[in-house]
Amino acid sequence: MLxxxxxxxxxxxxxxxxxxxxxxxxxxxxxxxxxxxxGGLSMLSTEFHWARRLRDEMRRVVGRLKGSSDDG
Length: 72
Hints:
This protein is mostly helical. The protein has one domain. Helices cover 81% and strands 0% of the residues. It has three helices and no strands. Helix 1 runs antiparallel to helix 2 and helix 2 packs antiparallel against helix 3. The chain is flat. The model has no long low-confidence stretch (mean pLDDT 90).
């Protein structure tokens, strides 16, 4: 029973973080939207394969962007 409660809490927190991050990512709303989305996906990735794939893709894109800005 404890395992199911922890899993439900993790999923609820992850979904909440993704939703808040999407709102923060909107134009005109201050805040680290994409960072919050990444945190939510990291929480969800412990339970769902789709979230793990999306988190890894975000990590790859950010890595590529960081690498291209260093070439300057």
